[in-house]
Design brief:
Blueprint lengths: L1 E10 L2 E7 L4 E5 L6 H13 L18 E10 L2 E10 L5 E4 L2 E2 L12 E4 L5 H4 L2 H13 L3 H26 L5 H41 L5 E6 L7 H7 L1 H7 L10 E6 L2 E2 H4 L2 H23 L4 E4 L8 H13 L5 E5 L2 H9 L5 E5 L1
Parallel strand pairs: 3-13, 3-14, 8-12, 12-13
Antiparallel strand pairs: 1-2, 1-4, 4-5, 5-6, 6-7, 9-10, 10-11
Helix pairs in contact: 4-5, 5-9
Length: 359
Amino acid sequence: MHLKRLSLVNYKSFESKTLEFNPVINCLVGENGVGKTNILDAIYHLSFGKSYFNPVSTQNIKHGTDFFVIEGEFEKEDKNEKIVCSFKKGLKKVIKRNGKAYGRFSNHIGFLPLVIISPADRDLIIEGSDTRRKFIDGVISQSDKDYLQTLIEYNKVLAQRNSLLKYFVANTTFSGDTLSIYNQQLHEKGSIIHRKRQQFLEDFIPIFKEQYQNISEKEEYINLKYDSKLSENTLMELLETALEKDRILQYTSVGIHKDDLDFSIAGHPIKKFGSQGQQKSFLIALKLAQFHFIKAQSKTTPILLMDDIFDKLDERRVSHIVSLVEKEHFGQLFISDTHVDRTEKVVKSIHQDYKIFTL
């Protein structure tokens, strides 16, 4: 699978832009602020129906206009696929495949598998658990539509339960029977999600560790661990134990929406004890493991976006990472950088067809 052509209208910094891509390697070079990352984000938008960097649709419209259109022409399994994502202020976003609009965006997720590596990934280390849960859910959802639908249903029931808890306080009332209906639904859907997350990490962690060793070229002990209270008790038991606390807080304090991933190096949190280089290698290993997992599950080679790949990594390390692309048949690759000579030197070294776009 590869992206042949991308057209943008009023998307972020671009009033109008059309690019024809190489099926193997594409390099976007230019000074900071010229729109390299915006082009990568537009490609991500076509795959996931939202921006990687700013999911608020109105903030992805070029200043002074009231709509944007992203159009991509892909080749997948020897078929041409045209994807159009459009949004106008005051209206719902629309995603069309070959002229037909999706009824639910979730039906599109996974059709165009894609992985992005960006300096913004550091949020996975420094931000809260919500960011890490989104990473797990995003990887699993690209190859498991049932998981995505179950997650959507869980979040819907969670919102309803939270609203009910607020209603009880506002009206000085309580109904255990009504609450038990939501508890049962959360238990059923949450148990499925927890089981699939466990299975995913059992498969994912060995791939991740292998990728880290390939990138770092060092024997460093790194690990990631799934942190979930459902590993010790059922969700029904947790909900019953936390009932009084939930009534006071007026929201659901336990469940799979509180799960987390613990990232460590040498047995210590990488957030506090990992150098910038180690953290960067850790994150790239996460994303390359994501790539391999999705490729194995979907039987389709994802598109790989590498935004500002030289950030915090020296040229030797970047060359090594890109050489892995050659060895492991990555498919279509997009790289953004500020220095054309540096980028061209790296891509020339792997002896693959490439195209450079100077913005």
